[in-house]
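Take a look at my tokenised protein here and describe the backbone shape.
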Amino acid sequence: MPYKLRTKIWIADQSGDVLFGMGRVKMLEAIEQHGSFNAAAKALKMSYRALWGRIKATEERLGKQLVVRTTGGTRGGGSALTPYAKDLVSEFRAFRRQVLDQADERFNKMLLTKLGNE
């Protein structure tokens, strides 16, 4: 099949700023996997400041905490997702999958034949 529908899904606030999407999902999953913002940023090949700024902006826009941060101590601190963040990631992934599946189905029914690919 030479044609495929490509779709990006994200949630924006009233100003059009990104509230949540796959970028935030990947950031949160990296924080959870690596246990810190610094390690997550390195794994994602982005700066600590960029990662922290995006997560902080999302927390402020939602009015909810996504990451619990612990500082210093003998173990050096770290970060973990809140139960709310874990649920949000899971629900967004499920929602996205449904939307993409429906979009693919509609594309195949409505447009694919018009593009000359039956």
Q: What stands out?
A: The mean pLDDT is 90. The CA atoms of residues 16 and 43 lie 28 Å apart. The longest strand covers residues 67-71. The domain at 16-110 is CATH 1.10.10.10 (Arc Repressor Mutant, subunit A).
